Amino acid sequence: MPPRTRGGYTSTAPRRRPTGSECRRRVQLREVEPEADRDPIEQHDRDETEEVLEGAPGGPIDRCILRSFHRHVAAKIWLGEDRAPLKLVNHGAKLQLWELDAERSRISETVQRSGLAPLISCSHRVASKPMLSAFCERWQPETTNFHLPFGEMTITLDDVASILHIPITGSMISFSQPLRVDDANALLVELLGTTDVEASRETKQCRSPSVRLLWLRENFSTIMDVSSDDNIEFATQAFLLHLVGCTLFADKSATSVGVVYLELFRDLSMVGRYAWGAACLAFLYRQLTTTTRFEVRQLGGYLTLLQAWIYEHFPEMFSSPDLSYIESRPRALRWRPHVIPDSLQSVRERLDRLQSSNVCWEPYVDHRAEHPFPDIAWFSGCIKCGLVVEPYHPEQVLRQFGYIQTIPPRPFTPPRPDRSILLDQYWERWTDHVLTDQSRGRRCQYSGSGESVAEYMAWYDRISHHIIQPPHLRSGFTTDARSSLPSHTASTSDSRNARALTLLRHVIFGGRQQSGDYFWGALNEAHSILAGSDETSALHHLLQHLIAHHHLLRVHFLALPLLSILH
Q1: Residue 467 to residues 94, 139, 286, 356, 399: CA-CA distances in angstroms?
Q2: Full DSSP string of 440-471
Q3: What confidence score (pLDDT) does residue 48 get?
Q4: Residues 6+ apart with CB under 8 A from 348
Q5: Alpha-carbon 325 to chain mean position
Q6: From CA 470, how far away is CA 477, in angstroms rounded?
Q7: Contact at 8 Å (CB) between 467 and 506?
Q8: pLDDT confidence of 90, banded at 50, 70, 90?
Q9: Quick one: CA torsion of 290, 293, 297, 301, rounded to 10 degrees?
Q10: What pLDDT sits at residue 562?
């Protein structure tokens, strides 16, 4: 029997595995910036002998970009497995347990100079499990962004600066190696004034080079201005460690913070020189990446940043604004955090129906007078938090900067953390590594319009998995999918074609799991949408042919000619 090729066709010729260059040409539909123009750090560890990977049910059809998608939670959801909402690590309420009142003004003054003071007031006490869990399912580790039905979006350095008002420029937060427990004990003795016994007891209880947030409050929150200079310094360092442990670097222990961050507060006069916002973003990127594995049940990182980012960019769907907000304050305070009443299933389906027109692409226009756009947000390279290194790709989300989205260069694999010196030097020269005017391209014709070039969606549909819920698993799914189509009126042939393609894309991406009844219902529904359209339309003719000859064909073969139009 002739061998079956990918997609179901048969051939008498032996199958040839495409080369890596052919794979890249198949994914990328236009020329990108020359490799010679990209920094060697960005090219580190790129696989020269790239293996061609089969597509996945529901997409991506081509996995040259999302190479690890077979392990992604979204792949499991598409195949019928489910995951409950994530447990959220949110310490917003704990910050209120250690107040810097008038009797602690000496500590407060130092904290204000550190650049971290805004975190005290802007941290959300409530986080929404369904909303954050649904966005985690759309995070893709290879691209470090969210894959939505209309394209990619991510949290940028501009978002961090506007939402939190903490420094995003300055020195990278670097650690040469993981901290050992003995070294953690020594740091606690030196910088917090504890005894060896107290330090050893605490790290032993944490079973790691960490201390409990409760332990920090119990031992240092009672120190006031009348205390000695040494005790004031110990209390200030303990407060700052508690602050970053509750916010920027909240880990999945849910109760403790790594002692390694205490080293950053050794010289209290230098705390403000660090790029805290960039470190926070790298840490959150890594936490989001961890949650893409099906077995993970918990989300760490600074959830106020993630939640406020969602409120800013999707205000019609999730937000509840605080009408007393003024633009001189961090944007995190613009919102009243709340737990949305929707289930995780409901949020998934709402995001699956999302359109570009539902997005607020440039939410900080009114904020610019008080907080101008930071040029470092155009930096293209790696951001870091200690041993965590993550790529940062503004070229993938040009619409968030007011530019027309083009097909971006392929994401690069970040170098190993042990190359920290090179990464630090690269970051220090960030002005040499921002996107050029040529790379940014053209501005959108209208502010916030979220435009993209014509070929972008064809490329994106091929390399992405942007519909999370299979049609047959949606609430009340029927073959009449008009309710999931764009709400605009189909007044032209182009809009009718777009509606028909949207319907067919949702059903065809169900792969072989779709029953014949669903498939034929979708064909007939798409055919009725196209009634009265241009009779020379290739899509219209194809639908007529398939409907007329459906009794001769197997359902999954019908996807092949349709996919050639969908992509």
Answers
A1: 37, 12, 23, 14, 20
A2: H-PBPSSTT---B-TTHHHHHHHH-----S-G
A3: 36
A4: 77, 134, 137, 468, 469
A5: 27
A6: 10
A7: yes
A8: very high
A9: 20
A10: 52
Tens digit of each residue's pLDDT (9 = 90 or more) over 260-277:
999 999 999 999 999 999
Cβ pair 152, 145 in contact under 8 A: yes
Whole-angstrom distance, CA of residue 56 vs CA of residue 69: 8
The answer to whether residues 471 and 481 touch, using CB atoms and an 8 Å cutoff, is yes
Closest Cα partner for 382 from 408, 421, 410, 414? 414
- pLDDT given for residue 119 in this prediction: 97
Question: What are the tokens at 7?
Answer: 């997609």
**C-alpha dihedral sign at 40, 44, 46, 49:** positive
Tell me how far the alpha carbon of residue 195 is from its chain's centroid.
Answer: 42
Q: What is the pLDDT of residue 516?
A: 55
Chain-centroid distance of CA 549 in Å reads 44
pLDDT at 567 > cutoff 80: no
Give which of 414, 149, 124, 137 is closest to 290, Cα–Cα.
137
Map 136-156 to HEC letters.
HCCEECCCCEEEECCEEECCC
Query: What is the tens place of the pLDDT at every residue in 406-454?
Result: 999 999 888 877 666 788 899 999 999 999 999 999 999 887 889 999 9
Which H/E stretch holds residue 382?
Answer: strand 381-385
Residue written as token pair 């050794």? 266
- What is the Cα–Cα distance from 395 to 409, expressed in whole angstroms? 8
Going from the C-alpha of 254 to that of each of 33, 162, 187, 198, 244, the distances in angstroms are 43, 26, 22, 22, 13
pTM for this entry: 0.77
Which amino acid is it at 560?
L
- The DSSP bridge pattern shows strands 151-153 and 210-212 to be unpaired
Tokens encoding 217: 């409050």
Range 173-198 average pLDDT: 95
Tens digits of residue pLDDT in 212-266: 999 999 999 999 999 999 999 999 999 999 999 999 999 999 999 999 999 999 9
How far apart, in Å, are the Cα atoms of 51 and each of 4, 330, 379, 401?
Answer: 20, 46, 30, 34
DSSP 8-state class, residue 388? E
Mean pLDDT over 373-378 rounds to: 98
pLDDT of 483 reads: 43
Q: How far apart are CA 559 and CA 556, in angstroms?
A: 6
The residue to which tokens 């509606």 are assigned: 499
Q: Are 305 and 312 in contact (CB under 8 A)?
A: no
